Amino acid sequence: QVQLVESGGGLVQAGGSLRLSCVASGRFFRVNDMDWYRQSPGKQRELVAAITRGGTTNYADSVKGRFTISRDNAKNTMYLQMNSLKSEDTAVYYCNAGAAVSFSRNEVQYWGQGTQVTVSS
Prior knowledge:
It is a single chain. The chain is mostly beta strands. The protein is built from no helices and eleven strands. Strands 2, 4, 5, 6, 9, 10 and 11 form a seven-stranded mixed β-sheet that branches.
């Protein structure tokens, strides 16, 4: 009952920046923790950044100092500001969120379809 839609991906030159967005829609009580994952061909999906509903953040060592995760709870939207992009950042970026459809229901994990980020060197 929750849909996640990512946007903002594209082609960018190394050293450039992109801003990804993830919007949650549908019928739900609340969205709790949200995360950004990425996956490139031949590699496992990895956690890039995470943010709790209260705003506590966590980053993979590979992106610390370059990426910033944020969210707007009123808009049910999460963002990933990516600066100083490197070729190794090339991947499909996925939005993940834990949400409850009602007060009495347990949290369920949802995934977006992903948005492609390509960094040219």
